[in-house]
Design goal:
6-stranded antiparallel β-sheet, 6 strands, Thiol Ester Dehydrase, Chain A, alpha+beta
């Protein structure tokens, strides 16, 4: 599922002239908010229920540089769903040449934003994530 499409901003580049490591992780974060919203955890729902996925682990591979002005797209998918967490995969591509420039997998935990504790993923959210994993609703 397409989760992010945007250019690299000059402010995201470091003194080496390419997109900084932290900016790649920001794109993963943006992709996760897209997945959440598609699964029913949009901003209004998060604000009302005080529940959200939060990042717990990221494993990333940087394959090629991105420069200011490069247009990137991120495709993401649900890999697995546990009791309180789910695992996701992300692939970032440079639109100009179609090169895969970055891949990542992350584990996110379903979280109570008030008590700051992990919660069991509710059935409706689990079903929505399952539908995404199976390719429905993308």
């Amino acid at each position: 599922m397409l989760t992010v499409r945007r250019p690299v901003a000059p402010r995201e580049c470091d003194i080496l002239g390419h997109m900084n490591v932290a900016a790649y992780i920001d794109v993963v974060s943006d992709a996760m908010f897209t997945i959440q919203a598609v699964a029913g955890l949009d901003r209004a729902t998060v604000e009302t229920t005080r529940r959200s996925f939060v990042g717990a682990r990221v494993e990333a591979d940087y394959k090629s540089e991105l420069l200011a002005g490069d247009l990137l797209v991120m495709d993401s998918r649900v890999l697995s769903i546990g009791t309180k967490s789910a695992r996701f995969a992300h692939r970032m591509t440079r639109v100009l040449d179609g090169a895969t420039v970055f891949t990542a997998e992350n584990v996110s935990v379903y979280f109570d934003l008030d008590t700051r504790r992990a919660l069991a993923i509710p059935d409706d959210l689990r079903q929505a994530l399952t539908n995404l994993m199976e390719g429905d609703g993308t």
